[in-house]
Design brief:
349 residues; 2 domains; alpha/beta
């Protein structure tokens, strides 16, 4: 069973290594830094490889004898294309843990090439976007003629370097929704707000360009999609002024300043924080006649969930369950995929 984990030395990559034994997996660890990869592989008694994604020949050597890649090295807008192209050349199934809309759309455009190569391209195998994608399809099945979908999540453990860096590289870009089947940019984050009934408590949320703006359309066919995240009302008072200084946030100076500060922070939430934290998801679908359906999920904390869902999907692929072409988690494995994770609870409202 040849699973290669690229980006193994990152915060989430190391969590995936930690949980791999839970699924009976022994991934080949890989990344750019020989010293870091070798040290981690030695710690876990696992094989390892090193490759530069900017060198196609290096990627081809990396993928020799591999059945599936689990790509965990972000920001994926810089790394996913090279790895997907390598998987297409070498007929290797591709998974990643991105939440970036552009990466999902790029993978969708490779659908025919993936089918010709006989491989599956499934970005978003982690918290971005497994729980929300599965909830979207669950609700679509309850209301088959749904025309509108709203999804919201809240997770409070904190951010890893990788997640924070991805956010920094998109400062000042505003938001996105899907409108009449098309992804449509909106000028600011939080252009809409509301309070939603998460499990156990209601929370204030604002719109953000979450991956489901892309993926939920492929999973459900619903043409109008909005995605939200929990935010404190006091923080939102500052966020709503961003329209006046987005031009500044887009400058290299500001983005590089933010990224330099990120590197001075802890690599990600501590084990204690992750153990105490949970993630909450809410979804609602509605149709043209006013009917609607709502449901919620309660799941493990986001980074822990990413390790668990990505390994669960990798195990399915290694066992021969890999529908070819571009896939989303729910499209490939159904709305019940998330319920295979221990501790997940789903409730209809």
């Amino acid at each position: 069973m040849s699973l290669l984990l690229y980006g193994a030395t990152g915060y989430t990559g190391q969590l995936i290594v930690e949980y791999a034994g839970k699924y009976g997996l022994q991934p080949i660890l890989a990344g750019r830094s020989e010293a870091k990869v070798k040290a981690l592989a030695t710690q876990w008694s696992l094989p390892w490889r090193v490759a530069d994604l900017n060198n196609p020949a290096s990627v081809d050597a990396l993928l020799e004898g591999i059945q599936v890649v689990l790509h965990a090295a972000g920001p994926f807008q810089h790394t996913a294309k090279a790895m997907m192209e390598g998987c297409l050349r070498n007929q290797v199934h591709y998974l990643d843990i991105t939440g970036e809309i552009a990466v999902f759309e790029s993978a969708a455009r490779l659908d025919e090439r993936a089918k010709t190569a006989g491989i599956m391209l499934l970005p978003g195998a982690g918290f971005d976007v497994v729980p929300t994608d599965c909830l979207a399809l669950y609700l679509k099945n309850k209301l088959p003629d749904a025309t509108h979908l709203q999804l919201a999540f809240a997770s409070g453990a904190g951010l890893s370097h990788g997640t924070a860096t991805t956010m920094a590289e998109n400062l000042g870009q505003g938001g996105a929704v899907r409108l009449n089947g098309k992804i449509t940019r909106v000028p600011v984050l939080g252009h809409k707000t509301m309070t939603v009934p998460f499990p156990g408590k209601s929370l204030f949320v604002m719109t953000i360009p979450w991956g489901d703006v892309s993926t939920a359309f492929y999973s459900t066919g619903i043409p109008n999609i909005e995605t939200y995240t929990g935010v404190s009302p006091s923080s939102f008072k500052w966020i709503k002024w961003q329209r006046y200084f987005n031009w500044l946030l887009r400058t290299s100076f500001v983005r590089n300043l933010v990224k330099s500060r990120i590197q001075k922070r802890p690599a990600g939430p501590s084990p204690e924080k992750r153990k105490k934290a949970i993630s909450l998801v809410w979804g609602k679908v509605s149709n043209g006649s006013g009917k609607s359906a709502e449901a919620t999920l309660r799941t493990p904390e986001g980074y822990t969930l990413t390790a668990l869902t990505s390994l669960l999907i990798a195990k399915k692929v290694l066992n021969g369950s890999a529908p070819i072409g571009f896939q989303t988690p729910a499209k490939a494995y159904g709305a019940e995929l998330i319920m295979e994770i221990e501790g997940v609870e789903r409730h209809d409202l």
